[in-house]
Amino acid sequence: MILSGQKEVLIKNQIFYYDNSRYLIAPMYLSAKSAITKTPYLALKIAFSVDEILEIIKEIGINKFNNTKDLGLFFGELDKNLLNAIFRLISLENSDKFRANLIKKEILYLLLSGDGGDFLRSYTQNGSMKNIILKAINEIKMNYKNQINIENLARNFNISSSSFYSNFKEITGVSPLVFIKHLRLEEAKNILLNSNLDAHSVALMVGYESWAQFSREYARMYGLPPIAHTKFLKSQGFYKIRLLSLE
């Protein structure tokens, strides 16, 4: 949720704006572009594990959901109950984990019983295609530096390669190979920004065997070669940027 300012998100050729009147649910890493459109900007991220979500689903007894197509993101309206729970959570001392867990359960209950409930359930329901793609993305995130065989990955989830490719692109907006490329380039950008490593070393670190290919694809994605882009971002004050999706 945004506490101050406004953000723009571009996904699947559609642009969405959200500010402190809305919240965003993002169940997995997506190939999306975002930009801060109003400042000062301050945002808060609350992370929930799949197990935490499933625990609340089990407790409230709502297992069915309408499995409709979506953008992989959900924008919901913030109401007083949800805001109250969120502010109670962030006002707690770090050591008060017991109360924090109770409030997180309350927040999940409000999300699952609200307009975003079906969206959340569709990604956590074991065996659903969205859940399979979510698990596949987690596999890719853990191994993106290595050579990933997409056919073997699909086989691990007991689905055909063609079904995996088509559903992956429908859910994430890009093919598995493009997704891996974007993941590597995002991580390369963050390493370059937050270290003194040279671009050749970083290219190898994120899984590229060819420096020329890395430089070419980096420039295509960001508009500038790696070193020039890093210098530009640092001149604009973009220091200590963390790729939240790789936490």
Automatic annotation (TrEMBL):
UniProt-listed InterPro entries: Homeodomain-like_sf, HTH_AraC, Tscrpt_reg_HTH_AraC_N
Alphabetized SMART domains for the sequence: HTH_ARAC (SM00342)
Organism field: Campylobacter porcelli
Pfam families in the record: AraC_N, HTH_18
Transcription listed as a keyword: yes
Domain HTH araC/xylS-type as annotated: residue spans: 134-232
PANTHER family: ARAC-FAMILY TRANSCRIPTIONAL REGULATOR, TRANSCRIPTIONAL REGULATORY PROTEIN
Domain of life according to the entry: Bacteria
Protein name (database record): AraC family transcriptional regulator
Alphabetical UniProt keywords: Transcription, Transcription regulation
Annotated PROSITE patterns: HTH_ARAC_FAMILY_2
